[in-house]
Amino acid sequence: MRDTDPSGDLPLILLEWYDVHARAMPWRTPPADRAAGVRPDPYRIWLSEVMLQQTTVATVRDYFQRFTARWPTVVDLAAAADADVMGEWAGLGYYARARNLLKCARAVVAEHDGQFPADHAALLQLPGIGPYTAAAVSSIAFDLPFTVLDGNVERVMARLYDIHTPLPAAKPDLMTRAEVLTPAIRPGDYAQAVMDLGATICTPKSPACGICPWRDPCLARRNGTAAELPKKTPKKPKPIRHGTVYLGQRADGAWLLETRPDKGLLGGMLGWPGTDWINADTPRPTGTPPASADWQPLAGEVRHTFTHFHLMLTVIHAPLPAEADPKRGHFVAPDNFRPSDLPTVMRKAYDLLR
DNA sequence: TAAACGTGGGG
DNA sequence: TCCCCAAGTTT
């Protein structure tokens, strides 16, 4: 019976699987605790969800621990200095998330009395909270019946219903299917269960269909198409860009750094002064250094790949005179300089000099 | 709608 | 080495 008309039992089957197989995570309230009445902390759910955007669980763990140790509540985070939050986020990527994280924390304090609203529409109005995160916080933190649609859920739905429309065009259809399945009971556990299923069983390559709790109703498994779903529109090739950064250090050890403008690539992050990064097949002549000094290029170069281009970075360094008055940037005393405050591409330039 | 926006790990 | 991928949002 369930083979031919399984729709009514699908959510229940997955929740039973989740009760046994839920992965432990620092921000997660296990299903047993949740059943005993333990409520998740909306601050920690929100923080983890923002960190998890386009980022693996393994990468997020350490950042989450450091953030919650340093800023235990949203009120603490709202009071933090911008540079401290950006420095703590360094290396996680997609730095607009960190800028919006602070804006959101301050909005929660200013507009919601320091408490995240248990209201999907209100959450959606906050900076950095889009359709996914609003649904995730609503369901996981407040157990409201909203449906998350992330990469995992898209993949699971595409396979469960054998949908061959390529992403992102298929999203509305996948969302409708996901919404129909979302149960009125335990929507928070259910949301995490579908994502866990996608992360551990219904994986992008070689899915473990044999041990999947939804193996019987899954149409793609029945049709042998699971491994090729979801279809995606082809990606555009990445061009190569070239640029130069200037690593200047005074005799007292202070480094010449700049805080990048809030908009654009690495916005709001600490970095080395340098040239624009220009599309080219070969390196460009170096630009104008931030201060007069005996600049010398380093052997080798920094290679780094961003979302939409490859970068070849020439690194130039110089000792700076004590009276140097740079046109750009500011000096950071060695006691205040943490290489870990730099975004990865800038840290690579520092590592090349070391 | 499409492009911009990071990084590290796995195959 | 290279390509794909990860619990997306903003413009």
Automatic annotation (TrEMBL):
CDD domains in the cross-refs: ENDO3c, NUDIX_DNA_Glycosylase_C-MutY
Free-text comment on the cofactor: Binds 1 [4Fe-4S] cluster.
Catalysed conversion reaction: Hydrolyzes free adenine bases from 7,8-dihydro-8-oxoguanine:adenine mismatched double-stranded DNA, leaving an apurinic site
EC numbers, comma separated: 3.2.2.31
Pfam families linked to this entry: EndIII_4Fe-2S, HHH, HhH-GPD, NUDIX_4
Family: Belongs to the Nth/MutY family.
Name assigned to this protein: Adenine DNA glycosylase
